[in-house]
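ok trying again, last paste got cut off:
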Amino acid sequence: MDRRNCMQLMAGAGCGALGFPVCAGSSERLRIGLTAVILADQVAFLSRCGRYLSERVGCEVSFVARESYQSILELLASDQIDVAWICGYPYVRDEANLSLFAVPLYQDKPEYQSYLIRAKASKVPIKGWTDLRGRVLVYSDPLSNSGWLVAQAQLAKVHLRPRDLKRTFFAHGHRNVAEAVAARLADAGAIDGYVWETMRLQGMAAVAQTEVVWKSDFYGFPPLVTKKGSNHPKVPGLQAALLTMHQDEVGRELLQALNLTGFTKGAPALFDSIRRQALTIPGSGVVS
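nice, full thing came through this time. structure:
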């Protein structure tokens, strides 16, 4: 079962069927919205993660999966989820309405990079952004920092406009970016470096068939956020559970499966470099 099918099945399944504890009242249920930021290939993993958090928070914790950050943000705005795992770009774009909840630690730091990848043994001589003229470039999501925003900034630096490329398209997920490049549907792809490295550790074929030709500076890792003004009584308990996951064996196993080392509270300043970058891109939606 691939990640997309797993996430869709998880989103549509009843929590009782996945073994979650039943809460006394639905008002105490916690729902976490997420996209392909998490590479979970089995329903069993998210089920185990839900049970782990439920036991520590004291109420049912379930996951709601969607394929785009926009869809997750809409669920959060309409109170259909309580916490959203998004990207730093939509966070700075809608910071007035969002509160930072937790930031994952990747290799012990709340940071990651964007990669530009190409297919191995490609006959197309792509060594960097300047080589994309007349080529096909695949993005992840219109609200992705590593999978869209960074690419816009880099293309502008080398004076390439959208019409200078042969074609661009969205794959709707970082894993799908790697798969599109591996299948030669695109000459190059803008991808989350954490996702690519995690796919490599998991031995996924798409990564074995691609290679990195460029890495960005470091940016704040995709954060978990809540709707500003949210007063769900169990949200503080969920935050505490995430911040202490690294302190017990089961928590460490779950983190290791995600190639993470923990969570931190984080601070808005962590995303300043994304904010500054977005301000240079016309139509980014970020205002000073």
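cool. The domain at 114-216 is CATH 3.40.190.10 (D-Maltodextrin-Binding Protein; domain 2). The chain has two domains: 3-110+220-279, 114-216.
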